[in-house]
């Protein structure tokens, strides 16, 4: 078998060879060369590209049964590194394209979905993705100006064109997650043995004469037998974790008729976390409609509504988060004792003489470090996140003449985010947590809109191929946020739903942000005989973020290409 990228694979049977020499001439795969890929503001033939663009198909991304749109992209595109910053269900990912190109600013790429810039891309339902193109270098990403400096991820979502007639399909997946590896920690008997060894070391190397009879120290009858042996042996990693069962369901209805098509997609996702009480759920609906009412006009509309909610646990391995306490909590403590969650401050120990033969030698007491109960922290503390997104666009395409189109498109990306946190009231203080209840909540709204109008011209003249585009864009972003917190609650009745019921003076704050852009852009791609290529790209950006006397900046790029193999 002989194969190479861009060429047709050829196979030969060794048994049919007539000589020991085989001459093979690979032929260009014209189908692959004529494949159309999505670029900024239009499409281009793959053979005409001078920039670096990689493509991943949506069906390939779903093979990993990922719940995050970025998880399915891992390993699919060269030069794109995707890191999971957290093990939280529905957690964010960090994407780096061809290394970090900035020191102080964000290194995240620009996400463009169906021609509209989208934020919080990781919340997008991966089942809705038809394909992803990644613009990785300056030549391909320059059409987006400074915002494309870290690369651009172009996403095309599914629509109604699934063949003639009505096509109804269901896609579902079920996954099971467990903690891959647990830290080998001491059980209760090993802990007691180690404690006894510590007493013996103190006697031998520090001049002490402690008793090594543990029954004289560990006298708490709730936790220890009369001989000082522990009554309980708790593996806190087992108690604070679980076998997570996650499932995903998608129903797609696609219809194509004469000149029009419609697609409706509904999705439900339930992702459990390995730690107790951590989860992420998503319900998603998408509607896409395309029509060509006349020979000179095409229309399209796309609407996506996405709502997610989930409870998060602390990622902090320090302090009193469950990630730390499930490792450090004492193994001889049960999860609950007399119906109450345990923690280290309930342990009663007895002091012993520094010299067991001298009653006047003074006494040494033993008390463990304050460590909270990881199961209690996971079960009782709430850190809820609610995210609602409305995303969509509508476009008109005027076919002015053969090869010449004028497209105008309006799109929005609206987000409503709400966080609600509550530490329960309890008469027994949780270690390093409020003993009288504490609640906080914040709500933010953001609205991004863009209007873009551009001309595209595609023409073949003998061996010459021209693909030209020029247009203009207006964009605006508005953001508001309000937050409040209070503490000292008398019970858990209201939780975070009534911050005013706390007896402390509430703390409040707010935030606001707004920016706008006006841009003009063009691209000219020329190829001769599918061998010699040239691309010129330029974008003239005006932004409210720029300095007062320098509101506009020009970002040009040119590139030559040769395919002479």
List keywords for this structure.
mainly beta, five-stranded mixed β-sheet, 45% strand, twelve-stranded antiparallel β-sheet, 565 residues
Would you mind describing this structure in some detail?
With about 575 residues, this protein is mainly beta. The mean pLDDT is about 85. The strands form 6 sheets. It has a 12-stranded antiparallel sheet with strand order 10-11-12-13-14-19-20-21-22-23-24-25. Strands 3-8-9-6-7 form a 5-stranded mixed sheet. Strands 1-2 form a two-stranded antiparallel ribbon. It has 7 helices and 25 strands.
Q: Please mark out the parts with pLDDT under 50 across 5 or more consecutive residues, or reply none.
A: none
How far apart the termini lie comes to: 20 Å
Please bin the fraction of helical residues: under 10%
- What is the overall shape? elongated
Oligomer: single chain
How would you characterize the largest beta sheet? 12 strands, antiparallel
**Radius of gyration, taken over Cα atoms and rounded to an integer in Å:** 32 Å
What's the rounded overall pLDDT mean? Answer: 87
β-strand amount: over 45%
Given the helix and strand composition, which structural class is it?
A: mainly beta
Strand order of the largest sheet: 10-11-12-13-14-19-20-21-22-23-24-25
Number of helices: 7
């Amino acid at each position: 078998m002989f194969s190479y990228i861009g060429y047709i694979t050829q196979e030969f049977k060794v048994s049919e060879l007539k000589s020991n020499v085989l001459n093979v001439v690979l032929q260009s795969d014209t189908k692959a060369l004529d494949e159309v890929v999505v670029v900024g503001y239009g499409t281009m033939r793959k053979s005409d590209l001078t920039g670096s663009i990689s493509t991943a198909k949506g069906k390939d991304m779903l093979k990993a049964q990922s719940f995050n749109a970025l998880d399915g992209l891992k390993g699919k595109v060269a030069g794109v590194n995707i890191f999971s910053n957290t093990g939280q269900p529905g957690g964010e990912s960090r994407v780096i394209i061809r290394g970090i190109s900035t020191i102080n600013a964000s290194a995240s790429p620009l996400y463009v979905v169906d021609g509209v810039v989208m934020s919080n891309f990781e919340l997008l339902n991966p089942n809705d993705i038809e394909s992803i193109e990644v613009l990785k270098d300056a030549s391909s990403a320059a059409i987006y100006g400074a915002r494309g400096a870290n690369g651009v991820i172009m996403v095309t979502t599914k629509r109604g064109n699934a063949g003639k007639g009505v096509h109804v399909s269901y896609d579902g997946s079920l996954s099971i997650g467990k903690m891959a590896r647990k830290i080998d920690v001491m059980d209760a008997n090993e802990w007691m043995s180690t404690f006894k060894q510590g007493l013996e070391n103190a006697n031998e190397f520090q001049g002490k004469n402690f008793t090594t009879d543990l029954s004289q120290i560990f006298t708490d009858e709730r936790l220890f037998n009369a001989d000082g042996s522990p009554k309980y042996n708790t593996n806190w990693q087992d108690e604070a974790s679980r076998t997570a069962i996650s499932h995903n369901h998608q129903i797609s209805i696609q219809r194509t008729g004469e000149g029009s098509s419609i697609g409706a997609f509904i999705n439900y996702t339930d992702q459990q976390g390995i730690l107790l009480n951590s989860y992420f759920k998503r319900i998603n609906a998408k509607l896409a409609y395309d029509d060509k009412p006349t020979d000179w006009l095409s229309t399209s509309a796309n609407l996506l509504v996405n709502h997610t909610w989930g409870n998060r646990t602390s990622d902090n391995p320090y302090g009193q988060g469950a990630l730390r306490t499930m490792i450090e909590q004492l193994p001889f403590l049960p999860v609950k004792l007399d119906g109450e969650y345990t923690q280290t401050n309930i342990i009663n120990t007895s002091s012993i003489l520094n010299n067991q033969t001298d009653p006047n030698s003074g006494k040494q007491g033993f008390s463990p470090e304050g460590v909270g109960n990881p199961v209690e922290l996971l079960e009782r503390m709430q850190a809820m996140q609610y995210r609602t997104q409305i995303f969509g666009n509508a476009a008109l395409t005027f076919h002015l003449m053969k090869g010449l189109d004028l497209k105008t498109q309006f799109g929005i990306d609206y987000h409503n985010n709400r966080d609600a946190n509550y530490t329960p009231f309890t008469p027994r203080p949780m270690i390093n947590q409020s003993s009288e209840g504490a609640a906080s909540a914040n709500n933010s709204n953001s609205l991004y809109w863009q209007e873009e109008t551009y001309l595209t011209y595609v023409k073949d003249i003998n061996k010459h191929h021209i693909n030209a585009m020029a247009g203009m864009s207006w964009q605006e972003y508005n953001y508001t946020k309000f937050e409040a917190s209070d503490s000292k609650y008398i019970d858990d009745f209201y939780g975070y739903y009534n911050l005013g019921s706390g007896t402390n003076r509430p703390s409040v704050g707010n935030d606001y942000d707004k920016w706008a852009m006006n841009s003009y852009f063009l691209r000219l791609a020329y190829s001769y005989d599918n061998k010699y290529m040239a691309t010129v790209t330029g974008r003239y950006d005006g932004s409210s973020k720029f300095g007062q006397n320098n509101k506009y900046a020009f970002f040009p790029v040119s590139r030559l290409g040769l395919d002479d193999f």
